[in-house]
């Protein structure tokens, strides 16, 4: 493996570690029926959709030096793309879970709609953290 491939692999491992830790937090919240505030939920959601690990593969095989990947412009573009992916992901999730949570059954899904309903005190099954 070349140095840039090593960098890509280490970025993937770091991103996947963030993903796994966030999934544990989400599972603990779900198990304990805790709902996060909307801001806290979005911060955690940003980690749970595995973008950090996925985006690291975009540079695989490009032989980009570490300086390029750490350049402020590249960092800004990477973070912006992750934000866009998170917003799209939450948007699709919102529609699906709104139908399930509000129209069909009591809120049992760890989703943005649950956090919104809890913070507006429209449901009380969850504890806000």
Explain how this protein is built.
This protein is mainly alpha-helical and 129 residues long. The protein has one domain (3-128). Helices cover 71% and strands 3% of the residues. The protein has 6 helices and 2 strands; from the N terminus they run H-E-H-H-H-H-H-E. A two-stranded parallel sheet has the order 1-2.
Overview features:
single chain, 129 residues, mainly alpha, 71% helix
Q: How much helical structure, as a percent, in the residues?
A: over 70%
Number of strands: 2
Low-confidence stretches: none
Counting DSSP H or I runs of 4 or more residues, the number of helices is: 6
- Principal-axis shape equals elongated
The overall number of domains is 1
Q: What is the average per-residue confidence, as pLDDT, rounded to a whole number?
A: 77
Beta-strand content bin: under 5%
Q: Decide which structural class fits the backbone.
A: mainly alpha
Largest sheet: 2 strands, parallel
Radius of gyration: 18 Å
Order of secondary-structure elements:
HEHHHHHE
- CA-to-CA gap between the ends? 44 Å
- Strand order within the widest sheet? 1-2
């Amino acid at each position: 493996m070349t140095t840039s491939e090593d960098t890509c692999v280490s970025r993937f491992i770091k991103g996947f570690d963030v993903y796994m830790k966030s999934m544990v937090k989400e599972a603990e919240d779900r198990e304990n029926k805790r709902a996060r505030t909307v801001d806290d939920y979005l911060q955690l959601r940003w980690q749970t959709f595995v973008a950090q690990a996925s985006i690291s593969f975009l540079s695989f095989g490009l032989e980009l030096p570490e300086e390029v990947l750490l350049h402020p412009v590249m960092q800004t573009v990477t973070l912006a793309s992750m934000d866009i992916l998170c917003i799209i992901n939450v948007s699709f999730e919102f529609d699906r879970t709104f139908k399930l949570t509000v129209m069909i059954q009591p809120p049992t899904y760890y989703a943005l709609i649950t956090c919104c309903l809890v913070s507006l005190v429209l449901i009380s099954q969850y504890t806000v953290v």
